[in-house]
Amino acid sequence: MFEKFRGTGTAIVTPFNKDGNVDFKSFQNLIEYQIGNQVEYIVFLGTTGESVTLNTDERCAVINFAVEMVDKRVPVVIGIGGNNTQEIENSIRQTSFEGIDAILSVSPYYNKPQQKGIFYHYKALAAISPVPIIMYNVPSRTGSNIKAETCLQIAREVNGIIGIKEASQDLAQCAKIIKYKPEKFLVISGNDDLALPFMAIGGDGVISVVSNAFPREFSQMIRYCLQNDFVSARQIQTRLVDVIEAIYADGSPSGIKAVLHMKGLCLNSLRLPLVKINKALSNQISTILNEMNSFAHTSKIP
C-alpha cells in the first residue's frame, strides 16, 4: 500500500458539457491521458474535481465510471470529506469500494475544530472505512491546520490512516512530519509549486493539479526526485514553473480547466460559484503553452 501511492497522483478535474452535466466522453479521454502518460494513481472527487458541486447521484456516477474506465490499471482514490463527521461516516457506509484503493479526506472546514477534534474525527472515519484513508491538510481552504504533532499522533495511533496530503505550504511543518513519522506513513505534497523542495526534504510524492495537463512531464519529475536525481528533476521543473504559477493565479480549478481546453482535452466549463479565468490570464497561459510547445519540438523531454 505504501508503494502504491509514492509518486504522482493526479487530482483529476470533472469535465462538464455546455449544459453543465458531467461530460463522460471527455472524462474517459482524460483518464486515458493520465494512464497513458504514466501517473502512478488518480484522485477523483477532490477539490479539483469540483466535488462540492456534485449531487449524490452524480458522485455515484463518477465513482462507478472511474472504476470501470481505470479497470485496475492504476490505483483509484476518491474524495470523501467534510465538516460533519457523522455524515461522512454515512457516506462511507453507503459507498461501494469495489475497485477503490483509498479515500482522500479533507480536514473539517468552516467549523475550525480543535486539534483534539481533528484527531477524533479521523479516528472515527478510520474505524468504519473498508479502505485506507489519506488525510488532507489544506488550511487555505479549511480555515484550520492539522499541526505536525496531531498528524504524528494520528500516524502512530490510528490504524487505517496511511498518510497525509500536505498543502499547508509550510515546509518546516512538512519536514517535522517527515522526520518523526512511522516508516510506512506517506507524506504527500498538495502544492505543485513546492513539489521539488518538498521532495528534497524526503516527501513521498505529489497529488498534483498541473499533471492534469502535463502528466508525463510532472510524473517523471517526481520519479527523478525519488531517485535523488534532482538535476534532471530541476530541468523539468523549470519548464513547468510558469504554467504552474498561472493556473493558480485566478483560482483553481478554473486555471487548469482553461489549460485543458486549450489542449483540446475538455471544455472550459465550470459550475457556479466558480467561473472562467479572466481574459488577460487566459492570453498569458496561451503564450506560455505556445512557448512550451516550441521548446518541446527542439528539446528531448524526459
Secondary-structure blueprint:
Layout: E1 7-11, H1 24-36, E2 41-44, H2 56-70, E3 76-79, H3 85-93, E4 102-106, H4 115-128, E5 133-137, H5 139-142, H6 148-157, E6 161-166, H7 171-180, E7 186-189, H8 195-200, E8 205-208, H9 215-226, H10 230-247, H11 254-262, H12 279-298
Parallel strand pairs: 1-2, 1-8, 2-3, 3-4, 4-5, 5-6, 6-7, 7-8
Helix pairs in contact: 1-2, 3-4, 4-6, 6-7, 9-10, 10-12, 11-12
Query: Strand sequence of the main sheet, in spatial order?
Result: 1-2-3-4-5-6-7-8
Instruction: Please summarize the sheet with the most strands.
Output: 8 strands, parallel, barrel
Provide the CATH top-level class. Alpha Beta
* Portion in strands: 5-15%
The first-to-last residue Cα distance is 27 Å
Mean pLDDT: 96
Q: Could you say what the CATH topology is called?
A: TIM Barrel
Number of helices: 12
Low-confidence stretches: none
Percentage of residues assigned to helices: 40-55%
CA-atom Rg in angstroms = 18 Å
User: In the residues, how many domains can be counted?
Assistant: 1
The CATH superfamily turns out to be Aldolase class I
Number of strands: 8
Structural class comes to alpha/beta
Which CATH architecture would you pick?
Answer: Alpha-Beta Barrel
Features:
302 residues; alpha/beta; TIM Barrel; 8-stranded parallel barrel; 12 helices; 12% strand; globular
In brief, what are we looking at here?
The chain has 302 residues and is of the alpha/beta class. It has helices at 24-36, 56-70, 85-93, 115-128, 139-142, 148-157, 171-180, 195-200, 215-226, 230-247, 254-262, 279-298; strands spanning 7-11, 41-44, 76-79, 102-106, 133-137, 161-166, 186-189, 205-208.
